[in-house]
Amino acid sequence: MLKTIKVRSYEIGIYFRDDEFKGLLGVGRHWFFDPLRKVTVEVVSQRAPWLAHEKLDMIVKSGALKDRAVVRASAY
């Protein structure tokens, strides 16, 4: 199966393969050959002030957000 993801100028794609974070996708069309349906890309707006994601810990630990966001631990 061929999967196409479009990321607009104000968005970013969060790319996972087999539930493991693999990276961020920039502007453009991204093609994935995914016959086993293991690729997931969540496209989120960079206009939103907050990013809440169930796998945010993996994304932060990867260092992918280093120059893009300020990460603070919640006290809750």
Report what the structure shows.
- The protein is mainly beta and 76 residues long.
- It has one domain.
- The protein contains one helix and five strands.
- The chain has a three-stranded antiparallel β-sheet with strand order 3-2-5, covered by helices on one side.
- A hairpin with a 2-residue loop joins strand 2 and strand 3.
- The longest helix has 7 residues.
- The chain is globular.
- The termini are far apart.
- 3% of the residues are buried.
In short:
The protein has 76 residues and is mainly β. Helix content is 9%, strand content 42%. It has one domain (2-62).
Shape: globular
As for the number of domains, it is 1
Distance between the termini: 41 Å
Please state how the strands of the largest beta sheet are arranged side by side: 3-2-5
Uncertain ranges: none
Please estimate the helix content: under 10%
- Total of helices: 1
Mean pLDDT score: 90
Please specify the SSE layout and strand pairing:
Elements: E1 2-7, E2 11-17, E3 20-25, E4 28-33, E5 39-45, H1 56-62
Antiparallel strand pairs: 1-4, 2-3, 2-5
Please tag this protein with its features.
76 residues; mainly beta; three-stranded antiparallel β-sheet; two-stranded antiparallel ribbon; 42% strand
